Amino acid sequence: MKLNVKLMPAFMTVLSALYFIYVLSGGDTTLSADAVGGDPGGKVLPLAMAVFMFAGFLYITLKERPDGQGMDPGTKKLFITTLLLSVLYVLLIRHIGFILLSSVLLYCLEYIYTTIDQDRDMKQAVLGGLGTMGITVLAYLIMRTITKSLMHLGRIGTLPGIFTASTFQAMISLVYVALFTFAAGRTLCRRLKAGGMKQIADPGLLTLATVLFLYVVFKQFFSVNLAPGILDF
């Protein structure tokens, strides 16, 4: 099936709008130490990003819209599937958590869009999704253990005080994400491709890297309150 419209900008426009609503519906945080100085709260950065994402993707969607062409049945099916996944993501993220739910959403979207013109093995796809989620959670837990341990050692004086700085912790996490992704690509993904399972190898690796990278950037660099959900420990 060949798509007669470019759907990804349209889907990202919808997802950005849903994310904007999600941020507005959540609680806000203000630093008590800056009550007089006027701390803008924890919603400012996510809201600003949602607005810019929505405006940018809407512009791309309108600019690249083929004149006089409608959606064929296959395109409509993809649109509805992506929309439903996005809505479920917004509704469930507070309960399930950013890491788990983002892994599922990104893997599903990557798998769907990279296998449009291919024969799909649904059993293989499900196993790939579960495996991707499991490896992403494992990588996240290892990363959290490393950063917490280094911070503890820095606080008790075993390591230099720089290890207690949030920015330095975030840099360590970025290096870890890069190394873990590289190792997964050179080992597990290579074996999957050799076994004829490229359909799940590429989406899985991209999901792993993207989810962990977004977590480090938003949570550790910008202190955005990403819902821990089930992994709240």
Automatic annotation (TrEMBL):
Regions that span the bilayer: 7-24, 44-62, 125-142, 162-184, 205-222
Domain of life: Bacteria
Pfam families: TctB
Stretches assigned to the DUF1468 domain: 9-139
UniProt keyword annotations, A-Z: Membrane, Transmembrane, Transmembrane helix
The keyword Ubl conjugation is assigned to this record: no
Protein name listed in UniProt: DUF1468 domain-containing protein
Annotated organism of origin: Enterocloster citroniae
Organism ancestry: Bacteria, Bacillati, Bacillota, Clostridia, Lachnospirales
